[in-house]
Amino acid sequence: MNDTVQGAADERLKAEPLFAQLIKRPELGAVAGVILVVIFFSITADRSMFSLSGIINFMTPASQLGILAIGAALLMIGGEFDLSIGSMVAFSGLFFGVCAVTWHLPLVAAIPLTFIFAGAVGALSGNLVIRSGLPSFIVTLAFLFILRGLSLVGLKWATGGSTQLRGVREAVENDWLAPVFSGDAFPGLFAKLADMGLVATFNNGTPKVPGIPVEILWFVAIALIATYVLLRMPVGNWIFAAGGDRTAASNSGVPVNKVKVSLFMLTACCAALVAIITVMDAGSTDARRGFQKEFEAIIAAVVGGCLLTGGYGSAIGAFFGSIIFGMVVIGLTYTNFDQDWFQVFLGGMLLIAVMFNNAIRKRVTGER
Amino acid sequence: MTQDTKFHHGDATQNDSPIVEMKNIEKHFGNIIALAGVSFDVRPGECHCLLGDNGAGKSTFIKTMSGVHRPTKGEILFEGKPLNFATPRDAMEAGIATVFQDLAMIPLMSVTRNFFMGREPTTGRGLMKRFDVAKANEVTIEAMRQMGINLRGPDQAVGTLSGGERQTVAIARAVYFGAKVLILDEPTSALGVRQTSNVLATIDRVRKQGIGVVFISHNVRHALAVGDRFTVLNRGKTLGTAKRGEITPEELQDLMAGGQEMAALEGSLDGTI
Ligand SMILES: Nc1ncnc2c1ncn2[C@@H]1O[C@H](COP(=O)(O)OP(=O)(O)OP(=O)(O)O)[C@@H](O)[C@H]1O
Ligand SMILES: [Mg+2]
Question: What are the transmembrane regions (chain A) (predicted)?
Fold first, then answer.
């Protein structure tokens, strides 16, 4: 939100130290967190963690979470929550699976249909929140259970009693659209780099890293677009305004309800994207897909500087928050620590981030 | 053009047809009758003051004018045509800008972002169409300077501004966007002497440009300094409208207080109010 300063010098304005300027950026905490985590693992973890294949190893889960977290961050800045993100992953995964396997639709139809479907569910929960005036926390908590339950029921219906729908890989294998949503990008480039000795290879000469997993590219692209939209588009201003104070925003001409419903739809579509990518990757979908992802996504958004009260935060912060998350989940396997420390870490990180954000907010608003 | 008062008061505007005409507006909130049939109009180039006690219904009334509330009953004519603003955005697009009593500012956002909230200037086309931050900053700084406040920076969060500075941002914003009607709900309540006279001078300036101004104030002197017509509200009803020169400050003050006790009070306070 810091747009470039200009204007004449003011004698009542002390020169602001760089640190003080930086600390007002919402994403500062997440960037500092990334640095700390990198330092921690460079000391405790095996060197291979920060090799190319190691980085891709932790960036893959980071990306899958990050796509959700950026959606959650925009929604939180807009002043609402969505606790049904994780269930939405399962539900749209089921829908996508049914499209591809049961209905034999090509991806060019199945994928748009999945997004439309997810968007419609998002619009439904968004409209319920707006029209009822209830906290989104409660409404989407209901959706958390409804969608998870529907996924189970739907899976049993589609498979005749199983909670896993198989055969997605076979159904989409030769689809021309598949490379956009699954597998690794730039395989040719990486093969060439391996030939040149720039990328480590297995004994048979194939590169250890066959390419960049597509979710990483989606993740980076979505983070960049979301940041641009937030900071440089009128809609971004509307999102901050809607979350900051809905009455003030509405009285100033911001179409608050439209903004909020669109954000719910966007979050649902982020869940659908993650569902499509992970279902195609796994070749099947099941009812536990996306389990508890809503909490992880909200934590990543909060670590990225989003205030729980809305109106403040950043997409790039959620980006770094997700990377911290991925580094810790995967990084612990490179160390001698018990992996279950991960949960302790997650909770601790959330606490620290919330306290940090609270202090920042007081600075920004001058707290009165 | 008389020289006796500080500001020019246009008489020529009397024949102009009103920009906004509100007829028998009623507004109920559940069982509370906030407005019980109020008629009011504002013509181009005039400053129409809306006066009244606390809770008289002034804010509620101007909110029906700026699209925040839908009237329960009554008719709104905009430039002669019946119109119902569904949202404040509609009213803004019609050229009505408002300074709300609560200012409608967002503390966490920068001055510039508040200034242009809902009406961001853009640059570029198609996919490249984006919020023109540089222009927005420039306009904000300049508009604030005209109101007599030098901002430290356009990216300063509104939450860190003083109460009067905040009020000035809201006024500058409304003046910038008020193409036809400017509504000011107690805009000077937190302002210093210099900023107050600046606001009064601004009202005079925009009035001369042919904009209709609706000015709500509890301060009779401020109202008399710029008002062309005065409408007094009491308990959701109009007590009547007076033209400038037809009413003395004392009469106006009595009307504003509901016509009671003011004289008695004034006596006990030795005429200090
Ligand atoms: N949203 C609402 N719900 C219920 N009652 C309301 C609402 N808004 C206003 N009122 C009531 O309507 C009456 C008029 O309020 P309003 O804010 O218009 O007064 P006002 O003339 O602007 O007063 P002040 O000079 O104190 O600003 C008050 O009695 C108030 O309690
Ligand atoms: Mg009021």
Answer: 28-46, 58-77, 83-103, 110-130, 136-159, 216-241, 261-280, 301-329, 341-360
